[in-house]
Design a protein that fits this description.
- The chain is mainly beta.
- It is built from three helices and 26 strands.
- The strands form six sheets. An eight-stranded mixed beta sheet has the order 4-5-8-9-3-26-25-24, with no helix packed on it.
Length: 447
């Protein structure tokens, strides 16, 4: 089966989840050189771009018949995270839930899923010159090998899913995953984090969901895989579309999970105004959360001088640096800063009153957590990416290449924009022109 349309580059054969399948070609991009002179300042050393791969061909090669009409959308969204694959220039990445947007109808925003059959996938890539090559793709499936899809899980807590034009309601799917962070364990299995639950998802090397760990009290029913309520109940207050986004694998095997935004505790207004977000530590042997930490964002105008809305602050990536050290990304859609953070056992709030939804004021409402006895994780700035020429917007994945170099990957949202103009009169995508890129940045100091 050919996976290229007329005028596109030819493709080659490889193994996808152990099955020989026609996969995806060497894809050319354009170099974006840094305007800075290499030296004392951080600077871009390379930019590689993912070329056009029709989303329908990509999806149906992995799971035949899942996508009937891709509406002209190309593969994108693989920039949800990036993790070293063990060979120079190679990385594991993961898509999010697929093409999605918002259209306002009668004054209310509706969440659209233009390609509802799309199945999130783990994608292995190689940065080669100015292009990003797809080497392997693994669909994320139920225990029986069926697509999990990226559709909303529950009517009680997730946005209602609609067709591309926001006119036709779609069915909820308890299997659906909005995957974000990714790491690979020594046994070849993967750990992912998801925004819906929010949840931590253990996936086999072939893509089957082994277990999905969710907050206590979530009550998710009907999933085609094992669901365990093992995460703190307070996480039920996650902001819609702002569940877990960052994930790191510590040297000893523990995981660190980052909630993307402050919890809506006690209500949405409190979460929108807060600069305090939570990180969790998960023991992969005990399969239990062993610590919870408070992390404090910088003021939004410090992270992004063009922004004055605190609710735009997010954590999108967490990287293990060795020992108990982490690299944490604070960002808006236009700017990002990376901080070195050290986990502090004395800062553990798991099981404390700050871990209870009834506590008033809540952790999120504290203007000065330290004054209330909350030890916030200490941090120091490593690099302000907003000041590095050549770094694109909406960086969601960060990987350590060597002691002085990091790789960044952006989320291009599958070339989609919000609003009724996202598709033309024939229902075909009006592409934003934003590409998926991997950008290497040389740092002035070793990590």
């Amino acid at each position: 089966m050919s996976l290229h349309a007329p005028g596109r580059r030819a493709v080659h054969r490889t193994l996808v989840a152990g099955v020989p399948l026609a996969l995806l070609a060497t894809l050319a991009g354009t170099v974006t050189a840094s305007a800075q002179t290499p030296g004392a300042e951080a600077h871009v050393t390379r930019t590689a771009t993912l070329g056009d791969i029709p989303l329908g061909r990509f999806s149906n090669t992995l799971l035949p018949g899942t996508v009937t009409d891709d509406r002209g959308v190309d593969l994108g969204g693989i920039g949800s995270d990036i993790y070293p694959a063990g060979r120079q220039g190679e990385f594991w990445t993961v898509t999010d839930r697929g093409p999605n947007g918002q259209i306002k109808v009668d004054g209310t925003k509706r969440r659209t899923f233009p390609v509802p059959g799309f199945d999130p996938a783990i994608v292995r890539i190689r940065v080669s010159g100015t292009s990003v090559k797809v080497l392997q793709a693994i669909p994320i499936t139920t225990s029986r090998g069926k697509a999990v899809t990226g559709l909303s899980n529950q009517a009680s807590r997730d946005e209602a899913p609609y067709s591309y034009d926001a006119k036709t309601p779609l069915s909820y799917n308890p299997n659906g995953l909005d995957t974000e962070g990714i790491v690979r364990a020594k046994d070849g299995s993967f750990w992912l984090v998801d925004e819906y639950g929010p949840s931590l998802v253990h996936v086999s090397a072939r893509g089957k969901v082994l277990t999905r760990y969710v907050p206590k009290g979530l009550g998710l029913r009907g999933a085609g895989y094992r669901v365990v309520e093992a995460l703190p109940e307070v996480l039920l207050h996650r902001k819609i579309n702002r569940g877990f986004e960052g994930l790191a694998l510590l040297p000893g095997g523990d995981l660190v999970l980052a909630v993307q935004s402050p919890l809506s505790l006690p209500d949405q207004d409190a979460g929108e105004a807060s600069r305090t977000v939570r990180l969790l530590r998960f023991d992969t042997e005990k399969r239990a959360v062993t610590a919870e930490y408070a992390y404090r964002f910088d003021p939004v105008e410090v992270v992004d001088p063009s922004e004055d809305d605190t609710s735009e602050l997010k954590i999108s990536s967490v990287v293990a640096l060795g020992g108990e050290r982490l690299l944490v990304e604070e960002r808006t859609d236009k700017a990002a800063r990376l901080h070195e953070v050290k986990l502090d056992r004395k800062a553990n709030i798991l099981g404390s009153r700050w871990d209870k939804e009834a506590t008033s004021p809540s952790l999120e409402q504290l203007e000065n957590p330290a004054a209330s006895g909350v030890r916030v994780l200490p941090k120091k700035l490593v690099v302000d990416l907003g000041k590095v020429a050549g770094v694109p917007g909406k960086i969601e994945g960060v990987a350590r290449v060597d002691r002085n170099t990091i790789a960044l990957i952006n989320d291009n949202d599958f070339g989609m924009t919000d609003g009724s103009g996202a598709f033309d009169a024939q229902g075909r995508l009006v592409d934003s022109g934003i590409e998926t890129t991997v950008t290497y940045v040389r740092l002035p100091k070793s990590l």
